[in-house]
């Protein structure tokens, strides 16, 4: 059912709209905020006064001189007013970051995930990592707004549990939110790793200020995040944007997920290594990978293929371009279904070959979607790189605290 | 940029939220509206008083007795308080309907689209049809809220034009909205035919009260509509939900749209007839279609194949099931991307075989999407049938006038 709204909700929402403008701008005046948001000067003034009192916003010394007008005080986020902690739970590695209010990292730490990956062991390791990263950044726990966990999905948000995540056989319905909150003493927000990364892009990356974008996340698998009409689109069961499990080849190989010919089965690290292996067997010379492969095929890995492609090696380039064409097919489908303004490609899985992926996908979305006559969709790679998910975890906290969210205005 | 909001906008939005509750319910009390919407009893009371004064809502004689409470007055939409006209522009046929405020048809008329389909001739024919249908329903033009045109896309909403619609070679950037408004004297709303049909489903069909659903529209081509978080999702260029032009087979046949292996190339009426033709050539006996096909292959058409499949003919059934499997692949992709709660299949192109399509798609979405462990997506066929687009055209008008739309609360 659709909810109505009321004055207190409108007040909270408008406060977030003002904060969002200040966060997106590189310095902005009260007058400019009113112009951008449609709010009255009086409403903006009242909200800014409270934000200044709370210390979340500061006036910088400089004035903004608008031609013909009098100088106006410049407002900025007071980025030291608080911190957020992000945790990325990759089946192979834990990463933890503490960021300031603008999403800028103050300290980052990594460690291998505990072998066996029993939930209690993983949570204990996470708590240790949080303690270490806060110590390194010299941030007292009292200044931390919260901890955002970017975890492999699917996730049941209501229960705060991880439901049968791919590649984690021991992790069926683990109440991770509560376990992690007890272990760290921090309020915990949890989301799918790719959704978290998309929130990170919205907060501190390529998606700043973009109304509609799709984020493709290349990690151990291929995930995604969707921002539609400025809102993170989570979907009816909070599991939208599973781009890696859309079918590229209807009768393609079965995926562990239950679907056929999924993007992930075609472009995962394993798939790229397997395809390179096949090509090196077929064509034993002519690639920088040929000689090391001949000596020891087991040394071949995803990073080597990407580095070779980045150096222009023809065999590795052909493998990466084929993977990029599969990604492009899904990108075109996502554009035809959701009509986004921007596609962002990110994650460690495209490191070194970001531009090849961007070029192939950009070429497809400029020639194949039905609405290309009206406008061409932008394609870019994430400036956050491999840290998108962990920065995204921290951004989940900032997003909950500060972004204009319809769930505040129109709660269920 | 995200907008703020204010009291007058909140007032208009809450009014629509109350109307929406009354429209969705089969009789509802003020108290029940307050409970469903989170609005205070006082707010609901004030809004209902105005709606009664305007004649849009009526109190029916019956009281609603809630166990243990005192009887409460039942509210209903006063369906005779106004009308809306819907027009469906199919390249082969024009259909026009006039509906009451609940979206119930009062009169419907059809005529072939003028040959050659020059824009001015089509608009003149449309205006004649509107006049005839209003006369038949005995509705004076002054009682008509507006005219909603369901047209082949893509559409540029800002300019009110049809941009290079598929299968209409003379229709490049035609300012249809203005032409039709001048010819009929009615305010005109225009949308993609499939989006209009989805709005029709939301207003008077299977999508009533459903927060997230995808509508597949089988007509001359295959279109779609998306409702996400109770809002029609139109996308950044207002051309979302082009399910028919998502790729099912990455290296499949080129589609006129510029993409490869599109759903539409595989399941359009022409494709289904061609596939039936191929199978009848390979296997000349054993089907109810064999004998008429042997006498005159040109008599084979889409409707005959669907009727034969509905009667259990094995060859026709195999053709329809193969088409349904292609639809199912796209349905699974749409679920994995948008995480909708419901898939609705509609349009004339699945008439007689609605249940076969529903069964094949339902089987796929219960076994292949990643989030199926959390909940299974419903699949149903449209109760509006082949008239979904024209009823949808009229529903566009009702939707603009009465539905709670974020664009009212948060205008751009």
Average pLDDT rating of chain A: 89
Biggest sheet of chain A, open or closed, and with what strands and sense?
5 strands, mixed
The arrangement of helices and strands of chain A along the chain is HHHEEEEEHEEEHEHEEEHHHHHEHEHH
Helix content of chain A: 40-55%
**What proportion strand of chain A?**
15-25%
Which strand order do you get reading across the main beta sheet of chain A? 5-4-3-6-9
Give a count of the beta strands of chain A, DSSP E runs of length 2 or more. Answer: 14
- Biggest chain-to-chain interface with counts: A-B, 80 and 80 residues
CATH topology of the largest domain in chain A: Nucleotidyltransferase, domain 5
Keywords:
homodimer, 412 residues, alpha/beta, Nucleotidyltransferase, domain 5, five-stranded mixed sheet, 42% helix
Characterise this structure.
Two copies of one chain form a homodimer. Chain A is α/β, with parallel strands linked by helices and 412 residues long. Helices cover 42% and strands 19% of the residues of chain A. Chain A is built from 14 helices and 14 strands. In chain A, the strands form four sheets. Chain A has a five-stranded mixed sheet, sandwiched between helices. In chain A, helix 2 crosses helix 3, helix 6 packs across helix 13 and helix 8 packs antiparallel against helix 11. The mean pLDDT of chain A is 89. At the A-B interface, helix 1, strand 11 and helix 11 of A face helix 1, strand 11 and helix 11 of B.
């Amino acid at each position: 059912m659709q909810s109505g709204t009321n004055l207190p909700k409108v007040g909270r929402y408008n406060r977030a709209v003002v904060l969002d403008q200040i966060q997106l701008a590189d310095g902005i005046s009260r007058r400019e905020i009113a112009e951008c948001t449609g709010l009255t000067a009086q409403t903006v003034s009242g909200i800014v006064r409270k934000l200044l009192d709370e210390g979340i916003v500061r006036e910088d010394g400089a004035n903004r001189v608008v031609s013909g007008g009098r100088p106006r005080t410049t407002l900025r986020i007071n980025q030291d007013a608080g911190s957020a902690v992000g945790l990325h739970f990759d089946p192979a590695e834990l990463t933890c970051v503490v960021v300031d209010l603008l999403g800028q990292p103050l300290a980052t730490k990594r460690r291998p995930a505990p072998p066996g990956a029993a939930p209690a062991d993983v949570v204990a390791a996470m708590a240790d990592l949080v303690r270490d990263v806060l110590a390194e950044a010299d941030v007292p726990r009292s200044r931390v707004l919260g901890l955002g966990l970017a975890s492999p999905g699917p996730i049941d948000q209501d229960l705060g549990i991880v439901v049968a995540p791919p590649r984690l056989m021991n992790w069926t319905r683990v109440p991770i939110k509560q376990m992690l909150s007890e272990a760290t003493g921090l309020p915990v927000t949890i989301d799918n790793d790719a959704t978290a990364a998309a929130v990170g892009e919205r907060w501190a990356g390529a998606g700043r200020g973009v109304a509609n974008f799709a984020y493709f996340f290349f990690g151990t698998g291929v995930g995604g995040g969707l921002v539609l009409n400025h809102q993170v689109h989570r979907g009816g069961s909070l599991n939208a944007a599973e781009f890696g499990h859309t079918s590229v080849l209807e009768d393609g190989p079965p995926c562990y997920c239950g679907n056929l010919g999924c993007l992930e089965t075609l472009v995962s690290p394993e798939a790229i290594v397997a395809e390179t292996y096949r090509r090196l067997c077929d064509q034993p010379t002519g690639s920088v990978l040929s000689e090391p492969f001949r000596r020891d095929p087991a040394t071949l890995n995803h990073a080597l293929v990407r580095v070779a492609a980045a150096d222009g090696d023809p065999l590795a380039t052909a493998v990466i371009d084929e993977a990029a064409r599969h990604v492009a097919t899904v990108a075109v489908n996502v554009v035809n279904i959701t009509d986004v303004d921007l596609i962002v490609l990110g994650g460690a899985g495209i490191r070194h070959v970001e531009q090849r992926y961007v070029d192939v996908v950009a070429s497809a979305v400029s020639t194949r979607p039905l609405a290309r006559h009206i406008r061409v969709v932008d394609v870019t790679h994430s400036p956050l790189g491999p840290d998108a998910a962990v920065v995204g975890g921290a951004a989940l906290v900032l997003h909950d605290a500060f972004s204009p969210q319809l769930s505040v205005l129109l709660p269920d």
